[in-house]
Design the sequence.
């Protein structure tokens, strides 16, 4: 499937990206939709490469697979589940799973959740000590990363109670978050799709004990977000405080439904609805736009070109937006838990690499940390820049302009670089001469020709954040389809969980079984006896 593209790459690998620019490349190698502008002109993709990449989606049967996902077919074959996070942001229409339309339940749960959010925000719903001032969301993975990322992203829209997130089983996390909160005006949300996740349940029990020190019926100030009614009841949370969802929502895709409750509490029902609408608009675009005009498709094809054709092992996501500081971490789960697989849907080993390693930090901070390697290191890292046309601080437009200038300058520097002659001139201007000048100049060379893309969005509103997240979700889907992967299971997290369960008692003093290796046993001994 990748043969023609690999042949193509072999023929153009040493070419300068700058030589590709004709009068229209900057306009043609871009996708524009609903306020978003995605530029991929600073990559080594030319018109023929684009044609070959677009053939991939035909060969992989993207159109049929996309239709199967949206219509509720059980495309997650290893768990025999439909994949319907898109239903959670629909406002009308029907979606059928096992012969039943799921939309009435989706809409009823959304209405109940938003009513709860509004009642709590207005003070109609109170804790033992009066109106709620603080919300603690206890969850991990998809039950944490999405809402925590979005809460930070949408800070300008937060007029509700303060929201705090606890995820790590490290007792330091829950301790530090609860310290200073008034239990009598704090609501605890236990967010767990399965309600079996050890980190979440352990932290929830700690929070329940903390709450019990000041509140007579502590479970009354708890809410559960889960698919497991029996387990939330066993924990003591009354059914009217449980917001349920179905197993056809994957954890890392679950922000749009009850798992988004903490966000809805912060930003309110109208803003949360705008957030869903942004995602739904991206869903429509993804289903209707033609290949090269389809934003998720093009984001995916650029990703496939860099990771599977060229062979770059990682990609950096670099939002020039401080409020998107958790977006790279969110994408790590979304992309790496979805496409970090080495067998395809058919159970056979992949013949190409799996999805790449995703990492990043917001600009401009990253510039003063790891950009050195991005510009001059021996690894080539495709960079995905993100920047808003407008910030939220009207008095600080000059700072936003500086941010924009930095973002554009980085992609420019990556592509253009600086050659030895220019570096020599700089070294000479600093007073270096002879062999010293030559040595100094070589340190100042930027080889350039390093690929990047830039995504411009209007302003980080709830609607826009919805668009962005849905864009990346669909990118993952398209890449997964091309790789032949089931992007919706996560068997790779299971073994570590099983072994941790077995090692827990050993660390507490039980005799280890023969299944333990000498290295691990020695580490247990060093941890427990020094
Ligand atoms: O360990 C991986 C995982 O299953 C994620 O996929 C999921 O988002 C996370 O754990 C939390 O799961 P739960 O919401 O069931 O507690």
Sequence:
């Amino acid at each position: 499937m990748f043969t023609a593209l690999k042949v193509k790459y072999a023929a153009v690998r040493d070419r300068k990206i700058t030589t590709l620019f004709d009068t229209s490349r900057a306009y043609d190698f871009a996708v524009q939709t609903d306020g978003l502008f995605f530029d991929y002109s600073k990559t080594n993709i030319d018109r023929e490469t684009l044609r070959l990449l677009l053939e991939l989606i035909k060969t992989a049967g993207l159109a049929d697979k996309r239709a199967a996902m949206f219509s509720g077919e059980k495309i997650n074959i290893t768990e025999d589940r439909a994949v319907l996070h898109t239903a959670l942001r629909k406002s009308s229409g029907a979606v059928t799973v096992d012969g039943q339309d799921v939309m009435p339940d989706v809409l009823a749960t959304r209405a109940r959740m938003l009513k709860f959010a509004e009642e709590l925000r207005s003070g109609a719903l109170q804790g033992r000590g009066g109106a709620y001032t603080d919300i603690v969301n206890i969850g991990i993975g998809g039950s944490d990363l999405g809402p925590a990322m979005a809460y930070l992203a949408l800070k300008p829209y937060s007029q509700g109670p303060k929201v705090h997130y606890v995820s790590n089983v490290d007792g330091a996390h829950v301790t530090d978050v609860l310290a200073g909160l008034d239990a009598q005006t704090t609501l605890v949300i236990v967010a767990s799709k399965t309600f079996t996740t050890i980190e979440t349940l352990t932290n929830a029990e700690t929070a329940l004990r903390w709450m019990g020190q000041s509140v007579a019926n502590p479970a009354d100030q708890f809410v559960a977000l889960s698919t497991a009614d029996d387990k939330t009841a066993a924990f003591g949370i009354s059914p009217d405080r449980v917001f349920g969802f179905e197993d056809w929502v994957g954890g890392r895709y679950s922000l749009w439904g009850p798992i988004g409750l903490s966000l809805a509490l912060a930003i309110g029902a109208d803003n949360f609805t705008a957030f869903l609408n942004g995602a739904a608009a991206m869903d429509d675009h993804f289903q209707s736009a033609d290949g090269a005009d389809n934003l998720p498709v093009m984001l995916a094809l650029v990703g496939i070109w860099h990771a599977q054709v060229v062979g770059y092992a990682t990609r950096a996501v670099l939002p020039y937006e401080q409020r998107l500081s958790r977006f790279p971490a969110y994408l790590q789960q979304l992309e790496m838990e979805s496409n970090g697989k080495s067998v395809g849907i058919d159970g056979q080993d992949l013949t190409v690499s799996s999805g790449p390693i995703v990492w990043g930090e917001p600009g401009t901070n990253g510039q003063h940390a790891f950009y050195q390697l991005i510009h001059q290191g021996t690894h080539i890292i495709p960079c995905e820049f993100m920047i808003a046309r407008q910030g939220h601080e009207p008095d600080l437009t000059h700072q936003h302009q500086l941010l924009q200038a930095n973002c554009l300058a980085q992609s420019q520097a990556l592509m253009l670089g600086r050659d030895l002659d220019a570096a020599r001139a700089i070294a000479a201007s600093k007073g270096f001469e002879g062999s010293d000048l030559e040595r100094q100049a070589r340190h100042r060379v930027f080889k350039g020709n390093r690929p990047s893309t830039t995504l411009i969005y209007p302003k980080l509103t709830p609607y826009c954040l919805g668009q962005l997240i849905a864009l990346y979700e669909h990118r993952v889907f398209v890449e997964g389809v091309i790789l032949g992967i089931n992007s919706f299971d996560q068997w790779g997290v299971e073994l570590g969980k099983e072994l941790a369960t077995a090692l827990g008692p050993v660390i507490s003093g039980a005799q280890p079984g023969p299944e333990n290796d000498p290295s691990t046993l020695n580490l247990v001994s060093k941890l427990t006896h020094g």
